[in-house]
Amino acid sequence: MSGPRRVRITSPQTRIALARRHRPAQHLLPPTIPGPDDRDSTETVRALFARQRRQALRTLALLGTVLFGLSGLLAAAPALSRVTLLGVPVSWLLLMGGSYPLLLLIAVRHVRRAERLERESAPGTGRVP
Predict the structure, then answer these.
(1) How many domains are there within the chain?
(2) Which of 66, 64, 59, 51 is nearest to 109 (CA)?
């Protein structure tokens, strides 16, 4: 004799998430802009989305260069940890005083370029994707 039959219980959110796995990745596509010619607006939005993705990849490459470059500099020049300025090792000053402002500049630059791409592709600007 076997025991009582087991019943699997899941929340509605879990069922939705599990069902989503089998559908195409529509959530990765940009939304369409309703207008008189939906096909043209959809192509425009997709072109903008592609340009912004390329910009994001360039930003990630710059970010990786900064982080790995700084790590490589500190690994290649261990003397920086022995040199102190006001009692603080120069390597720490580079990490804290140099990297965070640089990361902020990279972020601001990325946001400004993404917004500029949006302005350039807005209707009435004359820019064709």
Answers:
(1) 1
(2) 59
How far apart are alpha carbons 119 and 74 in whole angstroms? Answer: 41
How many residues does this entry show for the chain?
129
What are the tens digits of pLDDT across the range 96-105? Answer: 888 888 999 9
- pLDDT at position 34 is 60
Between 126 and 100, residue with greater pLDDT:
100
Distance, CA of 120 to CA of 129 (rounded, Å): 9
pTM over 0.70, yes/no? no
End-to-end Cα distance, the chain: 69
User: Is the residue at 128 inside a domain?
Assistant: no
What is the average pLDDT across 99-123?
88
CA distances (Å), origin 44, targets 2, 37, 56, 96, 125: 62, 11, 18, 42, 13
Domain range holding 87?
12-121
Q: Which of 57, 64, 91 is nearest to 77 (CA)?
A: 91
Residue where the block lists tokens 């290649």: 76
The Cα 21–Cα 58 span in angstroms is 30
- Both tokens assigned to 7: 């019943």
